[in-house]
Design a protein that fits this description.
Length: 107
């Protein structure tokens, strides 16, 4: 069971953005069999430029592990895409470590 919580700071995230985030992160179920919880923090960074940078910080809480990824881009969707790809790679590494550890145990 996956629980995804989205928090926005200093603005209100619309339902379309929240649905996009939930859909994108639900796909991470394919990379782990453990139940996990995801917390997404959305922030707008004012650098003085015309287009403000969007920050997406994702905390994925697994049994025994917490993965944190923070990405900045011109849109929240792009930042979420980059962060989700990074999470996939990290989950694959964790899965490989678990499998190699279970193979090393004597019978």
């Amino acid at each position: 069971m996956t629980k995804i919580s989205v928090f926005s700071q200093h603005f209100h995230a619309d339902a379309k953005l929240i649905a996009y985030i939930e859909n994108k992160l639900q796909r991470l179920n394919r990379f782990t069999q453990d139940p996990f919880r995801v917390e997404v923090y959305l922030k707008i960074q004012d650098t003085g430029a015309k287009i403000k940078d969007k920050i997406a910080e994702i905390r994925m809480i697994l049994p025994g592990n917490t993965i944190i990824n923070k990405e900045t881009d011109k849109s929240f969707e792009a930042a979420i895409n980059i962060a989700a790809d990074s999470l996939k790679r990290q989950l694959s590494k964790i899965k490989e470590k678990k499998q190699s550890f279970s193979r090393e145990k004597p019978a």
